[in-house]
Design goal:
protein transport; mainly alpha; transport; TonB_ExbB_1; cell membrane; 10 helices; transmembrane
C-alpha cells in the first residue's frame, strides 16, 4: 500500500513539473517594474520619445507665449488707455504731439502720424486733410495690431496639430505592441501592456499641449480685440481734434504743424 502512495506522489510531482507555467506568472515576471510616466518615456521607442519631447516643447512654448503676451497686453493697453483719455481733454494737435514726444507706443505713433500729415499739408484745411489723416491712422492701427498679435499664430498651430501628433505616437506605440505579439508568438499582457501604455502617454501629452493652447489663444484674441478697440478710440479722438482745429481756422492748425 505504501508503495502505491509513493508511486502516486512521484507521478503528481512529475505532472506538476511538466505542467505549463500560468500566464499570469509570466506576465508578472516580464512586466516592466516602472510604469510611471518617466519610466514609460525612458522605455519608449525612439519615435514615441521624439513625439513626447516635441509635445512637451510645444506645451512650454504655449505657456511662454501666454506669459509674454499677457504682460505686453497689460502694459500697452494701460498706456493706450491713459493717452486716449488725455486726448479727450481740451488740447491741440501740437500739445498732443509734444506730450507724445519720441515715444514708440501705439497711440503716440498715431499722434505723431497725424501731426506729420498736418505738417505736410501746409495748413491747408479741406476735406482732403481729414481723408489723408484717416488713411494714415488706419495704416498705423493695422501695423500696431499686427505687432501685438505676433506670436499668437503659434498657439493656433499647436492647438490644431498637437492632438494629431499625439495620435501619431499612439498609433506607433500600438503598432509596436502588435509587432511584439507577432515576434513572441503570444498574446501575453507582458508583451502588449508597455506599448499601449506608451501610446496612451503620447495621447495624454497631445491633449496637455493642445487644450491650454486653444484656451490661451481665445483669451489672447479677446485681449487683442480690446486693445484694437482702444486704438480705434484714439484714432477717433484724433479725427475729432483735427476737425475742431479745422473749424477754428488756419492759425491753430499751423501751430499744430510746428
Amino acid at each position: 500500500m505504501q508503495g502505491i502512495f509513493r508511486l502516486r506522489h512521484v507521478i503528481a510531482t512529475i505532472a506538476l513539473a511538466l505542467a505549463p507555467t500560468p500566464a499570469f506568472a509570466i506576465d508578472q515576471a516580464l512586466l516592466p517594474r516602472n510604469l510611471s510616466p518617466w519610466g514609460m518615456f525612458v522605455s519608449a521607442d525612439i519615435i514615441v520619445k521624439t513625439v513626447m519631447v516635441g509635445l512637451a516643447i510645444a506645451s512650454l512654448a504655449t505657456w511662454t507665449v501666454w506669459l509674454a503676451k499677457t504682460i505686453e497686453l497689460r502694459r500697452k493697453g494701460s498706456l493706450a488707455l491713459r493717452r486716449t483719455r488725455a486726448l479727450e481733454g481740451n488740447m491741440t494737435l501740437a500739445e498732443a504731439s509734444a506730450r507724445a514726444g519720441d515715444a514708440r507706443d501705439a497711440v503716440a505713433q498715431l499722434i505723431q502720424s497725424c501731426a506729420r500729415e498736418a505738417e505736410l499739408s501746409g495748413g491747408i484745411l479741406d476735406d482732403g486733410l481729414q481723408e489723408r489723416v484717416a488713411l494714415r491712422l488706419e495704416r498705423v492701427e493695422a501695423a500696431m495690431s499686427r505687432q501685438i498679435a505676433r506670436g499668437t499664430g503659434a498657439l493656433a498651430t499647436i492647438g490644431a496639430i498637437a492632438p494629431f501628433v499625439g495620435l501619431f505616437g499612439t498609433v506607433w506605440g500600438i503598432m509596436n505592441s502588435f509587432i511584439g505579439i507577432s515576434e513572441s508568438h503570444t498574446t501575453s499582457l507582458a508583451v502588449v501592456a508597455p506599448g499601449i501604455a506608451e501610446a496612451l502617454l503620447a495621447t495624454a501629452l497631445g491633449l496637455v499641449a493642445a487644450i491650454p493652447a486653444v484656451v490661451i489663444y481665445n483669451h489672447l484674441v479677446r485681449g487683442i480685440a480690446n486693445y484694437r478697440a482702444l486704438l480705434g478710440d484714439a484714432s477717433a479722438q484724433l479725427m475729432l481734434l483735427v476737425s475742431r482745429q479745422r473749424d477754428h481756422g488756419h492759425l491753430r492748425l499751423a501751430r499744430a504743424a510746428e
